[in-house]
């Protein structure tokens, strides 16, 4: 079963649409790839392909998963430290 990493529904893109969830091992929806191109193409000096957009989505998702993992570990560590005191 794949894990789902939802983005809060109040997170909107520049055009006002809600960002969809990204799953760990499902293929990305064409609409997500299109939206990634819309967001990132103006920031790139070279034309971006659909594969570039997929990679951007996967890397961004991985980055935020890692931040979340670190935050959870830090919170758990703080809780353990407080219990020792």
Report on the architecture of this protein:
Residues 1-23 are annotated as: Disordered. The chain is mainly alpha-helical. The chain has one domain. It is 54% helix and 5% strand. The protein has a two-stranded antiparallel ribbon with strand order 1-2. Helix 1 (30-40) packs across helix 2 (50-84). The radius of gyration is 17 Å and the shape is elongated.
Order of helices and strands: EEHH
Low-confidence region ranges: 1-5
> Based on DSSP secondary structure assignment, what is the total number of beta strands?
2
Largest sheet: 2 strands, antiparallel
What is the general shape?
Answer: elongated
Please give the structural blueprint:
Elements: E1 4-5, E2 22-23, H1 30-40, H2 50-84
Antiparallel strand pairs: 1-2
List keywords for this structure.
85 residues; mainly alpha; two-stranded antiparallel ribbon; 54% helix; disordered N terminus
Task: Summarize the model shown.
The chain is mainly alpha-helical and 85 residues long.
């Amino acid at each position: 079963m794949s894990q789902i990493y939802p983005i809060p529904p109040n997170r909107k893109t520049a055009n006002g649409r809600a960002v969809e969830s990204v799953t760990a091992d499902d293929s990305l929806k064409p609409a997500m790839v299109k939206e990634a191109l819309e967001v990132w193409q103006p920031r790139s000096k070279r034309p971006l392909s659909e594969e570039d957009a997929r990679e951007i989505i996967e890397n961004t998702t991985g980055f935020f998963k890692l931040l979340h993992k670190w935050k959870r570990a830090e919170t758990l560590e703080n809780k353990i430290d407080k219990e020792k005191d």
